[in-house]
Amino acid sequence: AQKITQTQPGMFVQEKEAVTLDCTYDTSDQSYGLFWYKQPSSGEMIFLIYQGSYDEQNATEGRYSLNFQKARKSANLVISASQLGDSAMYFCAMRSRNSGYSTLTFGKGTMLLVSP
Amino acid sequence: DTEVTQTPKHLVMGMTNKKSLKCEQHMGHRAMYWYKQKAKKPPELMFVYSYEKLSINESVPSRFSPECPNSSLLNLHLHALQPEDSALYLCASSLKGALSGANVLTFGAGSRLTVL
To answer: Is B90 in contact with B110 (CB distance < 8 Å)?
Structure first.
């Protein structure tokens, strides 16, 4: 069975600083995918970044980067130059094998608050 | 069009009511999903449709009845719900249902359901 662990219920950061949100995972699959989603208070889940298990380079998307350490089974999200609009819940998720279909299993999430 | 549209945004219903949640996408995605999210919890998978066929039912009670009339539309029919069914219901779609690459799930903003 696959498992995603986010150990930080909440994180605080000042505007313009960088922040790292932790995510560890457990899987017996050789091929897997890791995702980060942002959920503002409005409710929509917004896709941020994806890392495939065979990708040699760490994924980057604008201010978001994924620090992928395969041996340690960690996929931490780094947000550089935090903005007030980054305040939201952040979920790490893994692509799960479910009856041959691709679904997502989510961690419990980390609430990020960015202060001025 | 890169959106998943869900209606209504808010719904209040009694335990004897029959109502429906609607989800629409025009991205040509062939897999559609229903997730349920309780407050301060991660989303939990309910159903997956792949090519308009129900592929996964995560042992959801029969008072929730999904329907996929065509590749762009996904409904969730609600009948005789309980107060504990109050939650945010998220619809998502992806290009394919089967395991492959990034296969990013694009989520709608959700329908917030309250059962009295």
So the answer is: yes
* Inter-chain CB proximity B105 and A47 less than 8 Å: yes
Phi/psi of residue B85, each to 5°?
A: -85, -5
Taking contacts as CB-CB distances below 8 angstroms, the residues of chain B near A109 are: 42
Q: Is the model's pLDDT at B18 over the cut of 60?
A: yes
Q: Is A11 exposed, middle or buried (0-12, 13-18, 19+ CB in 10 A)?
A: middle
The Cα of A40 is separated from the nearest Cα of chain B by a number of Å equal to 10
Compute the distance between CA of residue B92 and CA of residue B50 in angstroms, rounded to an integer: 12
Q: What pLDDT is attached to residue B115?
A: 96
How is residue A54 written in tokens? 């065979």
Q: How far apart are CA B43 and CA A90, in angstroms?
A: 12
Cα B77 to Cα A52, B70, B71, B100: the distances in Å are 36, 16, 17, 30
Q: Which residue has tokens 């997956």? A: B48
Mean pLDDT, contiguous 10-residue spans, chain A (116 residues): 93 97 93 94 94 93 97 97 97 84 89 97
Q: Sheet of B18-25: strands edge to edge? A: B4-7, B18-25, B73-79, B64-70
What is the four-CA torsion angle of A64, A88, B105, A52, rounded to 10 degrees? 30
Query: Given an 8 Å threshold on Cβ–Cβ distance, is B43 in contact with A109?
Result: no
Residue B64: beta bridge partners? B78
Placement of tokens 């107060």 in the chain:
B83
Number of neighbouring beta carbons within 10 Å of residue A96: 20
Q: How far apart are CA A91 and CA B87, in angstroms?
A: 18
